[in-house]
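Try it yourself: sequence plus flavin-adenine dinucleotide, in.
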Amino acid sequence: MTAPTPISFELFPPRTPEGVEKLPGVVCQLAEAKPSYFSVTYGAGGSTQEGTYSTLLTVVRECGIEAAPHLTCIGSTRENIAALLDQYRAAGVKRIVALRGDLPATAMNPAAPGEFHYANELVSFIRERHGSYFKIEVAAYPEMHPQAASAQADFDNFRRKAEAGADAAITQLFYNPDAYFDFMERCHKAGITIPVVPGIMPITGYANIVRFCAGCGSDLPRWLKLRLEDLQNDKPALVEFGVEVVTRLCETLLENGAPGLHFYTINQSEPTLRLCANLSLGAIPAAS
Ligand code: FAD
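Structure, out:
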């Protein structure tokens, strides 16, 4: 019998009272798919409200699933990060998604405080202080991080994170599987052996997908953009089409060696659970 494909789900701390109210239900529905863990995003530069964040971690734990906080280092001091790591360890957290993060535009100035410049420094810091206690995930960019000097420089920087002690990586969202396969080939040639799990963003709207892709430098293939544009005023049809396209993307990735899938749930259960059902992933019965 082959081992089930690992899946993980990403959540963000809700920003509105309605979002806060809705989230426990969403988390419990998603938990039924039995993901390996829920990761929870964190605003860089301390822009996430502590109360909301810890509530979310509690909700996840109450559903019996491991919670993995994202930890961003830009704008932070060693002292702050050390305190957070101690706090997480005391709370039983065993997995961290270690990131540089982006400071909000208003805080982006040369005087912004901070002792870390890049995520590889954060990974080294975690390893120095806690040895192998935490499982560390880092970000990978098959289509290059938008601020990188070049694709090769970005890849070298990814290698630094692996060498600093990352256990695994999660990719930025993408809709072009060749970008992922090319990235994996480069890893193979460079002797980087950590699992690189594709980050999958379900498609639920035209404007938000265009915005997400533009924001993170991911290519929205022309054919896909045109089809979504045509369907933008027919939400049910767009959602059906989106499920079809993303199911196909996931199938292609898994058939060609992806070690698992990480879903950007955008705090909604249905789009991700439909994909899991189509793919017979997790504990969700296959779609009929
Ligand atoms: P790094 O790996 O440090 O890379 C950042 C840039 O610097 C790249 O262009 C890289 O090529 C370059 N670089 C890296 N090291 C060096 C070096 N030594 N010298 C010169 N250049 C270097 N953001 C949040 O604020 N909160 C979150 O919770 C969050 N979660 C995310 C989860 C995932 C899976 C992903 C893919 C992204 C997430 N982000 C989050 C966004 C992320 O913070 C941004 O993409 C950020 O700009 C880069 O973070 P990083 O950890 O990839 O940075």
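One thing you can check immediately is this: The first helix runs from residue 17 to 31.
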